[in-house]
Each structure stands twice: as C-alpha cells, then as structure tokens.
Input
Amino acid sequence: MQRAEILGGISEDAACLTRRFGTPSMAEANRAVAGWMLQAGMSVRQDNIGNIIGRYEAAQRTDGSTPSTMIIGSHLDTVRDAGKYDGPLGVLVGIACVQALHDSGRRLPFAIEVVGFADEEGLRYGTSYLGSKVFAGCFPSEYGELRDDDDVALASAITAFGGDISACNNDKRSPDDLLGYCEVHIEQGPVLEHENLPVGIVSAISGQTRARLAFMGMSGHAGTVPMSMRHDALCAAAEFVLAVESLAQQTSGLVATVGQLTVQPGAGNVIPGHATLSLDVRHIDNDIRLDMYNRLRKQAEAISERRALTFDWQLMQDNISTPCSPQFAAKLAHAVEAAGYPVRHLASGAGHDGVIMSGLCSFGMLFVRCKGGVSHNPSESVMVEDVAVAIDVMNRFLEDFDAAV
Ligand code: HGY
Ligand code: MN
Ligand code: MN
Output
C-alpha cells in the first residue's frame, strides 16, 4: 500500500496523477518498480517500448529441461487525473508474491516474470496496449508515425525513453515456455462491493472500438456572422456528443463515450472552425458493438452534411471481446475457495492488457473490490484487507500450478 502511495505521487502534473507513456514520470515509476523487483530477488530489464520486466528463476532442474514461465503483471501508465490503483496494483501484487517466495528461500518449478506494461491506457497516442503489443509481438510498425498533442512522433518518444522502435519486434516474448499471464486489477465497477466480496474472477473482457473524429467548419467573428450563415464546428460536435449518449441509452449493454474534445481556435469571440473528438464504444457482443460504431459514423456524416461542414474519421483501435482461459478461471476459483471466500465470476467492461496477451498465451484475471466501483478518478481506493486476499489467492494460484507443472 505504501508503494501504491509512492507510485501515486509520481506524476507529470503537480496538481493530479497523470503518468503517460514514455514520459519522465514513467521512467521514474519504472526505476521505483525495478528497485522493488530487485529487492524481491528478481533480475530486471526494460524492453524497447519501456515495459519493465522482473524475472524470478525457477528451482534448479536435474534433468536439464527448460522450466516454464508464468507472467503476472499489469500497467504502470495512467489516465489523466487518475487513481492510484488502476494498473500499479497488479504489478505490486505480482512483486509481493515473488517477495514471499524470495523471503522463504523458495523457488517454484517454473519461473515468474512480473511485468509493468508501458502503455495500457493509450492516453498519449490515442491507441492503447502499446506495451503488451510489443510483448505479444503484434506492434504495428506504422504506429511510429502516431503523434501526440505536442506533435511528438511515437518513434521519437520511444528513442527518448531509451528504446529503438526498429528493435521492438525483437522484444516479442516467445510463447514456447509460457504457462500463461495472470493480472490482478481493481474491478472498476460496483459488483464486488455490492455483493460484499473481496475478489472476483474475470470471465471475459468486453470489446472496445475507439475512433478520433474532427468536424471542420468556418471560424468567424462572433459579432458579425449571422446565425444562418455559420458553419460552427463545435455545435456539430455537441450534436454528435448527444447522439452518442442517446444511442447508448437506447441500446442494452452498450456504453459509448466522448471523453476528449478540443476546439480551435478556442477564443470566446470566434466561431469555432475545428473540433476534434474521441469516441469509445463498448459492448460484450462484437456484432452489436460494430453495428453501433458504424451507426455513429453515419450520424457524424449526416450532421456534417446538414451543417455544410466537412469531417474526418479515424479508427484508432478495435478489440473484440476476449474470453479468459477457462483453465485459469478454474484455478483462480479454486484458489479463492481455498482462501475461504465465495467464488464470483464477472465480465470486465474495462479493457486490459490481457486482451493482447491472449494472442500469446492463456490468460486470467482476478478483480479486487474497489470503493464505490469508482476508477479513472483520484478517489479510487481499495482496502488493504482485500489486497491481502488478492496476494493470498495469487500465491495459492501459483502453488496450484506448482502441482500441475
Ligand atoms: O479504457 C479502459 O478500458 C482501460 O481502463 N484502459
Ligand atoms: Mn484504466
Ligand atoms: Mn487498468
């Protein structure tokens, strides 16, 4: 918990917790986590995208065979004005599990790698999972041209962070020795608190589709252009935002959000000529999600035509709904029961690196109750007793694999 506080204080913004991919605050967080990994008896390395990876070797083998590896982890980047636990909790629980083995001088018949992924939120470049995509070997080289709000290309950000984008594909983790990937994460929803459960087992991660769009109108003098002659980009954007909300309210299981909106030129006496928006559409059913996404794109087009504007639409990412490994879910359920708690399976509306890791190996997730289900908000909080349960369950989960390997 102290470590979560320390990481919670490592931010690029003095007023709130914001730690974007590839920034000095991410480098500082990686240094802190590397220190804790070393204390837990791990060797530590940082790959070209900036994932920080600790490795705790397996018990010596006399038959010369190569031990498998279990990966435990989560992400160290945050959203803007974030909470302390979304991401870091999973890395810290992984380190705590290894610390327990190290303190007792034990090694399991398989190695454990704890990973702090470099970018799960996608705040800086608009497309998420940059860290796990390199780790899983599905990092598109064209991402190098993506630019952030300061017009810094992703390739340059990687170089500045000490990596080399052209070497990212060498960092693909071979699946040959992998047992799988398991992530501990706050639930970011109200179910566990509502049912008074400390932990839950994730059944699947909801699919999500993200886009970036812009309405281009005509800036002009707020005092002289008659209303009938305006091409106001912000009014078009406002109409679109409410259309997004209305469609999601009418469609069961659909959530859709415009979280970012920038207006140019951004002066009080100038009719906005340009508005850029983000769009985030989610539904556990892939067909429904894509149908709604396409309907919203058509609505943006209709708004633009009716207002005699032009508009631009860029798909930033599309992740299908991803089921967790039934074997991992069963072993996590067994560990939860052995720890003395009721077993509760639940889907995740939030995305996680497991979506990408599922392309590499089996993956499972353990949710931890969080206060009010609040997340992506500085009031995010967990109880130390629930974190202790998560560490206990993860230790049992690992020992269970111990028996199976
Ligand atoms: O947006 C999400 O679902 C996650 O918090 N990155
Ligand atoms: Mn998040
Ligand atoms: Mn997260």
